[in-house]
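If you are new to this repository, start here. Below is one unmodified record pulled from the training split, so you can see the exact layout before writing a loader.
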Amino acid sequence: MNSHCKKELTGPERPNPETTYVGLDISKSRLDSAVADGSPREDANSPEGRAAFVRHVARLANPRVICEATGGYEKAIVGALMEAGIEVCVVQPGRVRHYALAEGLLAKNDRIDARLLARFGEKIQPRCETRPEPSALRLREMLEYRRILTDSIVETRNRMELATGYLRDGLQTRIAALEAAIKQVDSDIDLHISSHAALRSRAKRLRLLCGVGPVLAATLMAYLPELGQVDGKVIAALVGVAPHPNESGGRSRKRKVTGGRDCVRHVLYMAALSAIRYNPILSAFYERLRDQKGKPHKVAIVAVMRKMINVLNHLAADPAFSLA
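And here is the target side for that same chain:
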């Protein structure tokens, strides 16, 4: 999801004056849609219902669909819309609710929300989703499974602290099985990347930066398709490592990072910890922030993360760009 990052739209991102904004409210079983001043429409959130909705939207003039992130229920319809070549924006629910309050709209139901999303898209014009390659989608599925396994290992190890006897033996067996499963997934990810020339070339390019390992390279290719296509400020905001000012009048508080794609940021954080140990340039940069400028450890680490993602953005954008 990239709606938290806003920039002036140019080129293909700039909406056509005749763009038809379609608000889409998604639930587990239903798709409620509407244009800002049109009649609502209802489809089932099923393969047949999604296909019918896509056919309906395709008949509109320059359609752009606006929907909220719903914890996963939006994935199938967003994929179907992208496959049909229809622009789609996935926005954060909190932004839409604040927009509704700014309008003075207190009522809420699925049909009202669909019209609200259409108005939100027309006025705010959030960024459209970037369609990843099919090979990157497969890679994303692998990484999601890997994350489930690693979360399970953390949970099981936490239980080990007070476990004894039979329970402890069982938990150790479970940890061994999970570690074997992760090893198999890592092997499958390596095979998948090596089997696709575009992924293989991109991964090799990203790993030129010392500190970037196979997991970070795969994560960037799967979850950050905008890498190399937007400028450094936008990519930092998409990852969630761009500091936002908090100033008003004579008050000036510390800047904070917020938002972004946590699945990318978490892996980038671990890579930054490695980089400050083994990358001489980033290590010197980190030490300068700590020793000369007195920055706290976490502030310096975020600065390293931001520098890393900007360098990676250059590597992805410009084949002639060199780290030497």
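Two things worth knowing about this chain: Residues 165-194 form the longest helix (30 residues). The two ends are 34 Å apart (CA to CA).
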